[in-house]
Every structure is written in C-alpha cells, then in structure tokens.
Amino acid sequence: MAVSLDTVSHDSNPNVAALERSGAAMPPEKHLDMPTQSLRHWSASEERKPILPHPKLATWLARLFVFGGGLLLTAYGTWEMYQVVSVSRTTALQWVLVGLFTVNFSWIAVAFTSALLGFLALLRRPGHRGPLPSTLQHKTAIVMPVYNEQTDRTFAALEAIYESVHATGLGDSFDYFILSDTTNPDAWVAEERAFLALRERLGPGARFYYRHRQKNHHRKAGNIADFVSRWGGHYEHMLVLDADSLMTGECIVRLAAAMEADPDAGIIQSLPLIINRNTLFARLQQYAARVTGPVIAMGLAVWMGRDGNYWGHNAIIRTKAFAAHGGLPDLKGKPPFGGHILSHDFVEAALLRRAGWSVYMLADLQGSYEESPPSLIDLSARDRRWCQGNLQHMRVVTAKGLKLPTRQHFATGIMSYLASPFWLFQLIVGIALVLQTTYIRPEYFARDFRLYPIWPRFDPERALTLFAVTMGILLAPKLFGLILMLIRGSDRRASGGGIRLIISSTIEIILSALLAPILMLIQSGSVFQILLGRDTGWQPQRRDDGSIPFKDIVRRHRAHTVLGALAGLSAFMIATSLFLWMSPTIIGLLLAIPLSWLSGQLGAGLALKRFGLLRTPEEYQPPAIATRANELQARNIAFGFDDADSLKAIYEDATLREHHIEMLPPAPPRKRGIIETERALAEAKLVDAETIDDAVSWLHNKERMVVLHDRALIDMLVQLKPQPVEAQAAE
C-alpha cells in the first residue's frame, strides 16, 4: 500500500523517504475531491453546458426507428395473440397469457429493431480512421483493478499493453497502475513479487505503480474511487481495464485522442471482443460476440448517441469529471437491495450524464479485447452478481435529474433478468390452459345464464404463424451478423469460408436454444433469491479453462433435470401437441447435466476448432498483442509466483521483505482496551511457533493477512528457525 504524503510527516512515518525515492510503489498523492452524489436532490442549474454543438436530429430519428418500430411490432404481436385466444369467450387465464406474451414480445421486438439499425449502419462499413496522432496533450493513467487474480495472467496482459502503447511512440503519455483489492495473502505477495520483477525488467522509465488496499471497501467501485481521490489529480484521463482486458496501443491512443478532441466527453466506451477462449461454452460466447456482438453494439451506439452507457472496463474516463460526479451513494437498507451499488458502472455513467458530460461508444474501434467465463456454471456465478446489481437499479432508475435514455438503460438491464421469470410464468400459464382444455369440463350452465360454455379455445393456424414470427424476430440479430460476415471477404475467409460460417452459426443457434431454458431457470432462481433477500457477495472469477468436477455439475443441475422430466411427462400426458410445443425447453432441461459438463470441456471446444468451426478472425490470426500476452504469461508461470507460500516468500527473501514493508501504510493507532481477535491469535501462534513451517501450517488466511500488514509480527516471523532443532543437529 502507498502512504499519503499529504497527511503524514517524515517524523511520523519512517517509510516516507523510501516512498519518495524513484522506486516508490506509487507517485506522490495529488488529491481530487470526490463528493458522494445524491439520488434525491438535483437542480438543472448544476448541469454543465456543452462547449461544442452536437446535432441530435439523427439520434432522435434513430430512437424513433428503434422504439417506434418496437412499439408497432409489439402491437402487432399482442393483437395476433389476442386473436389466437379470442376464438370464443376469453378466460381470465388467457388474458394473463396475453399480458405475459406482450411483455416478453416487447423485449425481443426492441432488440430486433435495435439490431436492424446496427445492421444497416454496419452495411455502410466505416472507412479507415486515419493515422494515429503524433502527439497527445495530456497524461492518461491506465488502471487495472485486481482481486485475487493469477499474476501470471494479469501482469502479462499489462506488460503486453505497455509494449504496444510504447510502440506507438506515445508511451510517455501513459502511466500504469495495478490497484489491488486482493484478500488472499498468497495472491497479495505474488502481486508484489510480480510488480517488483516487472519494474526490474522495464526500469523506472516504464512508470508502473502498485497499490494494495487493506480493506476492499465498496469493492471495485471503491478501488477506483480511492485511486481517483488520492492520485487522480495527476491525470486528465484514466483508462479502466478489467483483470482479463487486453487493448492495443493504437486503440488506447485513439481513445485518448478522441477524449482530447471532445471537451464534452466524460466517458468513451470501446467494444471489447472475446478472445483466447478454448472450452466449448467459451468458444460459443466468443463466436456469438464476434458475429452478433458488433450488430447489437452498433445499434446501441447509433440510437444512444451521447446518452450512452459504461460497461466498467475498456473505456476512457475524464478524471476530474468522474471525481466531481461519480461518487456513489450507499442505498438505504441491507443487501441485496441496499448497501453499496454492485453494478456501479451504469450508475457512474448516469451521474456523469446527468451533470452534462457525454457518454458514448466507439463501436467500430478495433483493438479492444476481453475474455469470458469458461463454462455455464462459471457464467451463472457471475450472472448472479450481475442480476443483483441490475435489480438494485430499481432503486436508482427514479433518481432525480437522470436523462430519459439513462432511465431506459436501467430499465433494459432490469428487464434482462426479469425476462426469465416472465418467460417461465408464460410457460406455466400455457401448460395450465392446455390442462384446463383437456381435463376440466366446461361450465355449460353458469350462474349468469350464458348461452355458451366458458371454454378456452385457440386458433392453431394463427398461433403457428405468430410462433414463426416470434422466432424470426428472436433469431434475426444472429442472421444479420452472419450476413455481414458472409459479405465481408476478409472476415469470411478468416472464419473458414461461407460453408463453415453457416455451419458454425447453426451450431451456435442449436446449442444456445438448448442452453436457454437452463439459463432461464438459473436466472429465475437468482431473481427469486434476491427478492427473498439473499445477498450474493463478491467472489473472484474463474478465468482458466480447467473443467469443473462432475459431481459439482450434477449438484448444480439435478433440479433442472428433474423439472425437465416432470414437465415432459406432464406435457405428454396432457396432449401430444403440448409436448411437441415444449420439446425445445424439455430437451434442454433433460440434457442440463451433460450439456453443462460438455460446455466446460476443453476437448470439445478444441475439436470444433480443429474442424474450423466456431472460428473467428481473431482466432485464425490472433492479434499481435494477444500472442505477446500469451508468451509473457508462459514466462511468468515459470517464475512460480502464484504457487509460492506468502509467509515463506517473505521469510526467505530479505529484499522482498524490505519492499513489502516499505509499501505498507502507517499502522493505525490502537485503541486501548480493544483487542483485535485475528491479531491476537496470529501473535499467539507466532509466539508458540518454533519454525517457519509451524507458522505456515498454523496461520489461517485472515491471520496471515494480519501478519503481513503488521511490521512487528513480520519481525516475529523472521525470527523463527528455518527447521526444527533436531534437524539442525542431525545436519
């Protein structure tokens, strides 16, 4: 950790002089005030006026096309569904079905019109962006927040980014920061070792810095806020990465140049493509993101205009604007709906936009990459946190002063998770209607003396037509992306040719359709858990390609399989037509365990890769920065930092120990009468220990973190013997 040079003196902290040397872990602090923003109070007079004129007609026309077209499609779908169920007198359950269908159909209708807009925009294919700028006027901090990550991967990525930026000739305009919130002691010391080794290789001119927070207050949002408030004054911009991000030097320089050219820009987001994936599930995501992703992203970029969104990484931010307006409030109450805001990026973009800063995406800017979860279970674990964060936005969407498009972004995020239980309810109501038609006798003589019985009837031909239209709208974005890949010769050839592209898209559609009902139940379960008050916490993501134990897969999906079997049996007993109608959902649920197992298998993904299927241009010809990052990762693995025990590393390496102590913050004053349990336990165990092996085997992770943060306890650790007395005597 770094020490505040503004708040401590040389007398109060003997390590200040060490931090002021050229090898300091962090530069001297230059503070920016970062006030907490209010969601209840806002005055229009607080909004800044744009410096440059920004025409809005095209953006509003695009919005009219997307939302007007979506509204017309929804009206058509609702009318057709009403016609399906209104053959005779419409029952209450049929009205419920129409209502649920309308909600679900409106969701895919807007997605369709937005994708159509993106498809039309991409048909024009933007030309070359021109040469890179020869100079940049301001400094940019490239920051990578990390939380219990593998250092071989993260430091390789950051070093590859540094080399790529340096190759542009504008490397002097960028500084690099590893901002650690790591709570695992072995990972923390591994980060320090990787940081020191990186600095030694590149020299002080590379300007790499490292800071570790003792308490990961407010998690990633708090990590970034701590950097901005303490060191943000040095930098006009900061480029935020994720632990799995890769960005080329050209992409970074163009983002910085775009920010300098637009004094009204607060956040400029790039579109990260997924790369480096090998398991079947990850390659499905990689392929879909490469084929369909640009269509969706371009559509969003066109109709959002300067009222865009921020995805939390691979974006450049105006530091002072972020400090002035990006301070997140805590929501009243306890998690999952109260406490600190999990999906902070949407809210930060909303607050900057409220203050008059523009937020937009450069969807056609190349050179921005990320990775994705390797299996369905890994995706669902991440999705659980995202679900809670998006549902939390129900308490933010009504905040005072937000722009209308911003509220729509929040509504879209909320609906992206509520869509699953709505779909589930629609299936349940459909089953109930068929059950009512098959087994419940009509009421011929009702109390109100109707001439006809109350009997739910349907128009099968119109229902089939509506089903076909719905599936067409649902699959259209994938078709748009495939068409673009086919008509672009370089992309088509790099993806294996037209036939392989068509086969790959077919595979992606089939597997996505089988996985969809599983994801529906997973997301529905997440929504129900959150509504019942269960907090998700924040666990580090698994990013490697290692498979999940089969018993864990069975435990995770056995309920889905049982539900699929019950649904299939019930549907078949009720009516063959119902069984056929539900067959995609039933098959997906019945195959939940083997599908989830197969999705995480490295062999399955590589087998398709050998046949040239699900191949992307970036897989055929990997970006130079990805190749370089993989080379550096292989080298870093050989260092063995991630496999070493933290206590032994500090014990055995005096130089590491010296640097570690230099990077610690000043110890807070201890209040008399207050005994910290973890510290007392750690000290007692060190007193009782005779050898370093005793300490390693006795101290748990929390106690290790206490030891590594305490200079006195580190001194006690160092005094331990390397081996038992008997072993020394034997030697």
Give a verbal description of the structure.
The chain has 731 residues and is α/β, with parallel strands linked by helices. Helix content is 58%, strand content 6%. It is built from 29 helices and ten strands. The protein has helices spanning 16-20, 57-85, 92-123, 151-167, 185-202, 219-231, 249-261, 280-291, 293-304, 319-325, 344-354, 376-392, 404-439, 460-487, 489-494, 498-531, 550-574, 576-590, 592-599, 602-610, 617-620, 624-639, 646-652, 654-663, 677-688, 692-698, 701-709, 711-718, 725-730, and strands at residues 140-146, 174-180, 208-212, 237-240, 246-247, 265-270, 273-274, 315-318, 358-362, 368-370. A seven-stranded mixed sheet has the order 3-2-1-4-8-6-9, with helices on both faces. The protein has a three-stranded mixed sheet with strand order 5-10-7. Helix 3 (92-123) packs parallel to helix 14 (460-487). The chain is globular, with a radius of gyration of 29 Å. The chain starts with 15 loop residues before the first helix and ends with a helix. Residues 239-462 form the Glycosyltransferase 2-like domain. This is Glucans biosynthesis glucosyltransferase H. It comes from Microvirga terrestris. It is a multi-pass membrane protein. InterPro entries: Glyco_trans_2-like, Glycosyltr_2/OpgH_subfam, Nucleotide-diphossugar_trans.
